[in-house]
Design a protein that fits this description.
- It is elongated and about 140 Å long.
- A hairpin with a 5-residue loop joins strand 21 and strand 22.
- 31% of the residues are buried.
- It is built from 27 helices and 34 strands.
- With 938 residues, it is an alpha/beta fold.
- 41% of the residues lie in helices and 24% in strands.
- The strands form five sheets. Strands 1, 2, 3, 4, 5, 6, 7, 8, 9 and 10 form a ten-stranded mixed β-sheet that branches. Strands 11, 12, 13, 14, 15, 16 and 17 form a seven-stranded mixed β-sheet that branches. Strands 23, 24, 25, 26, 27, 28 and 29 form a seven-stranded mixed β-sheet that branches.
């Protein structure tokens, strides 16, 4: 049951109910407008986020959030306030319910621009929020919201009302429209008596009669001073007025005591501009001797209300402008009911802790503002007559502009008494001024689509001067497709006589560039309701369109990256297992050859087995490269050597035999800079690119291979984050069939090929190229035209380092051991046996175990001079965790990490702990011997 009250006197009603057999009572709050229960917790009440800002939040019913801020809001305060309202909504409102938020700004003295912007941005993100209702706002706030709704800047579910009852009723309407219940109302809630003055005291000597002006005073209750003015207030009335005020207030017994000051000006016919200035100055001085809680002005005209609301932020006391005496008394009643919660007076709260320089700044702002207001001739009825001159760079320029708009609005009231034609011209001038100030483009065209009016934003959007654009037809700045689209939209508006909202199209700027816009159009009628043209608002959405396009591109890249990562993970796992298997084919033959005499007939077949294993290991290496795990050692290399080496290789000779009609042309820069990389992988890149180029020309053609030095200072195609600097370029061009556009995005995928699988390679060639270039921190640019050929351009960062000294094969005597003890830890039996046999052949004492756990158990009662520790072991703990536990038993334990992969993060962590050497599988006698010898010599 909704409760009806003749007056609004508060926002909650307390009802005591007996809840248990012991007779204990609990207090619940209910909304006096609807009877809905109000939920409020201590941690939601009077939350103090700064010197001058507090916030109280309540939940009315099940899904109306009521927020009451007080003081001045900074961006810091607003962030905390939004956090609290979001928390309250999450805790007290079901995730399945929509809700409406009510904002009471009666005690909000202002907010920074950043705070307002942050509030609006946050509100847009709240998915369950379907309505935002404000009350207690200033005229400027109301005007900005109304204008924003009209220009579709503010959502239409943002509303402004006069007071709490209207806000609650509107919230219920919004919820009802979305078929969302607000909760059940309480029945039979006892009402509170209306708070009304108990007595009014007045004396004859509390009256003042002057020429054309009179004022009388009265005391309402014990602490409300009520002043009523009639007539016309002039400057020479001010001194006797305040002298009488001072005398009367002393007799009322208010001197030195807290009180409320109400001034009624409903019967006041006018105030001269000098009187206004003197009145403000005198009341500021008077307040120092007679401080009051609030100054309330009622019955003021539109200008006085706006001026009070504008000046309230700069006055040393709280100020309100209300409709009548009843409204003033209700405001005081509300103030008294929450006196313990109230903030200090506005100016005192703002400046109480200010430094002397800040105090001077506030004084300067007060003086500047009051001087500007006082120097305006408010009696002048000209649209812009006698407005004080100010510089556009003045700190208070926006405030002065707002006051000037108020002045123009007042004058408009006088102009309405004149002829209809003059009033219409004034109205057009005002609104066109507003239109010129908005960021969106505004335009008016005749029936044929020729410009008759446009604002500066529209002109800038198209890139023409005003003279060029005036009278221009819409077909001049759009192509045929968009011209047809725009004609259909405008024609629909013409036929239906209804606005067409938010349709998108493209226009062509004067410089030829494309601009994407979102437009809303409506009809323009003359006095006889005949259509004479169209008006519309155009918003530039080019950045949004380009951002959407970029988002789709990035999403495609992410999808491709994830796909490559998945394939790489699979390939890496396969390569790891193959490495273990191939170790027997690579390492055992080497051991057998050491024991066989040179004339043994078994040497040739065993060497063939070894070479086959090495070739298989090369394919595994391709898998690791594609999986981005293949490059273990980076040295100083030169691309010219990689190209020349391949051109002299048996592989290239074989390629030429298969493609006799293909010519190969080489242009290598003489002073080519070096790069840091892997010569083996780079040679593979050269081989794959040249092989693919030759195979793309079944009828013959030419392949051009070139290298050059190049300095890059701008993005390469497809890369927005290319680093500036010196690069070495490898380019491979062909005159072949080219790459189909559908295949272009897939050519680097593993196993994706147009060749016949099994006859032209493994399908990993281009994946190896991609993986190698990325591992070398390089970039790839591809240009291809079907039927004409393809060019691959690879960019590798150069280095200024010199070549590493080449290490020739060493005799076995140089890396033989001296009986040192070595523990081999590997989960693969074959790997343990291979490593053990090689190390024993090198005269080391070897023990092997099959897991990290076994190694730890062994070392609890034994020791070892060196560990050969496999990094990846399954099941059980891996090499890193094994080494960590061994270090607890034997601090400083020497170890060599082994793996079929290149260094991973866990390998690097083990190296940081002390296992500095890294040995890559499959083993060779020389590699394992040198690694162990080097570790013992440290």
């Amino acid at each position: 049951m909704a409760l009806k009250f003749p007056y609004w006197v508060g926002e909650t009603i307390k009802v005591n109910r007996i809840n248990n057999q012991n007779g204990e009572s609990k207090t619940s709050d209910f909304c006096p407008v609807t009877g809905l229960p109000i939920l409020q917790r201590p941690e939601w009440t009077d939350q103090d986020y700064g010197k001058n800002y507090k916030l109280t939040v309540k939940i009315v019913g099940s899904n109306i959030l009521h927020s009451r801020p007080s003081g001045y809001a900074t961006i810091h305060d607003t962030e905390h306030a939004l956090e609290l309202t979001g928390k309250v909504a999450a805790e007290a409102i079901s995730k399945d319910l929509l809700y409406v938020q009510i904002e009471d700004y009666s005690n909000l003295h202002g907010a920074s621009f950043e705070a307002r912007k942050h509030f609006i941005t946050n509100m847009k993100k709240r998915q369950q929020l379907i309505g935002l209702v404000f009350y207690g706002v200033t005229p400027f706030f109301k005007m900005s919201i109304q204008l924003g709704r009209r220009l579709t800047i503010v959502r239409r579910d943002v509303q402004i009302v006069e007071d709490y009852p209207e806000a609650i009723r509107l919230a219920l309407e919004i919820l009802s429209a979305r078929k969302t219940p607000a909760g059940e109302s309480a029945e039979h809630i006892p009402t509170q008596p209306i708070v009304s003055p108990t007595k009014i005291t007045a004396r004859d000597n509390w009256h003042l009669q002057l020429d054309g002006y009179k004022v009388r005073y009265e005391l309402i209750g014990d602490d409300i001073a009520h002043t009523i003015s009639t007539g016309f207030l002039k400057a020479d009335h001010i001194p006797p007025l305040f002298k009488t005020i001072d005398k009367g207030f002393n007799q009322m017994g208010l001197s030195g005591n807290p009180f409320y000051f109400i001034h009624g000006v409903k019967e006041l016919k006018g105030i001269s501009w000098k009187a206004r200035k003197l009145y403000i100055n005198n009341i500021l001085k008077w307040h120092k001797n007679h401080p009051f809680h609030i100054f309330i002005l009622y019955g003021a005209n539109r200008f006085l209300r706006a001026a009070v609301n504008l000046a309230r932020h700069f006055l040393p006391f709280r100020t309100h402008a209300v409709k009548d005496l009843d409204s003033a008394l209700k405001l005081i009643s509300n103030e008294k009911s929450e006196i313990k919660k109230s903030l200090p007076q506005a100016k005192t709260a703002v400046t109480s802790d200010l430094s002397p320089n800040q105090e001077q700044t506030w004084k300067y702002i007060e003086n500047e503002l009051l001087s500007f207001i006082g120097n305006i001739n408010w009696e002048n009825e000209e649209p812009d007559g006698n407005l004080p001159e100010t510089e556009s760079s003045h700190p208070l320029g926006p405030v002065f502009d707002a006051i000037a708009l108020i002045k123009m609005d007042i004058n408009q009231l006088f102009q309405e008494r004149k002829k209809d034609g003059d009033a219409l011209r004034e109205s057009e001038a005002k609104y066109r001024t507003i239109i010129e100030s908005i960021e969106d483009g505004y335009f008016e065209v005749d029936i044929a689509g020729n410009f008759t009016f446009f604002n500066d934003s529209m002109r800038r959007m198209l890139g023409y001067t005003g003279d060029e654009l005036m009278g221009m037809n819409n077909r001049r700045y759009m192509d045929e497709e968009n011209a047809t689209k725009v004609f259909q939209a405008f024609n629909l508006v013409y036929r239906k006589r209804k606005p067409y909202k938010a349709f998108n199209w493209e226009l062509i700027r004067k410089d030829g560039s494309i601009c994407f816009i979102e437009t809303s159009v409506s009809i323009i009628n003359d006095s006889k309701n005949k259509a004479i043209g169209f008006r519309g608002v155009a918003r530039d959405i080019t950045e949004r369109k380009l951002a959407d396009k970029e988002k789709k591109r990035l999403e495609a890249q992410l999808h491709q990256a994830k796909k490559m990562e998945s394939i790489g993970t699979l390939a890496g796992g396969v390569a790891h297992d193959l490495n273990n298997i191939l170790s027997g084919l690579v390492s055992y033959p080497e051991l057998l050859l050491l024991d066989l005499p040179e004339d043994s007939p078994l040497r040739k077949p065993i060497r063939t087995i070894q070479e086959s294993g090495e070739k298989a290991a090369t394919i595994v290496q391709d898998l690791l490269t594609m999986a981005r795990r293949g490059i273990a050692v980076m040295k100083v290399v030169n691309l010219n050597e990689a190209v020349s080496g391949y051109m002299r290789s048996p592989e290239h000779k074989k390629l030429k035999e298969f493609h006799p009609d293909v010519q190969f042309e080489i242009h290598l820069e003489t002073d080519l800079m070096n790069i840091s990389g892997s010569s083996v992988h780079l040679s593979k890149v050269v081989m794959n690119l040249i092989s693919n180029a030759a195979e793309s020309m079944p009828e013959g053609g030419k392949v051009l291979i070139s290298t050059e030095n190049r300095y890059i200072d701008r993005p390469i195609a497809g890369y927005n984050d290319v680093d500036e600097g010196d690069y070495v370029i490898l380019s491979v061009s062909d005159t072949g069939v080219g790459i189909d556009s559908n295949d272009m995005e897939r050519i680097f995928e593993p196993f994706y090929t147009k060749k016949e699988m099994g006859r032209s390679g493994t399908g990993l060639g281009m994946a190896v190229v991609w993986g190698t270039v990325k591992d070398h921190k390089g970039y790839i640019d591809i240009k291809s035209t079907e039927g004409k050929g393809t060019t691959f351009t690879l960019f590798f960062p150069s280095t200024r380092k010199d070549f590493d000294t080449d290490k020739s094969s060493l005799p076995i005597e140089d890396y033989m051991g001296h009986g040192e003890s070595i523990l081999v830890i590997d989960d693969v039996k074959e790997q343990r046996e291979i490593a053990s046999r090689m190390l024993k052949r090198l005269d080391y004492s070897v023990t092997s175990v099959s897991s990290g756990v076994e190694a730890i158990d062994y070392l609890k009662s034994n020791s070892s001079d060196l560990l050969i520790l496999d990094m990846i072991m399954d099941p059980g703990i891996d090499g890193l965790d094994t080494y960590r536990q061994i270090l607890k038993l034997h601090p400083g334990q020497k170890a060599i990490i082994t793996s079929g992969y290149s260094e991973t993060d866990r390998v690097k962590e083990a190296q940081r702990l002390g296992a500095e050497s890294y040995l890559k599988k499959p083993y060779s006698l020389e590699k394992i011997g040198i690694a162990v010898k080097t570790e013992f010599e440290k």
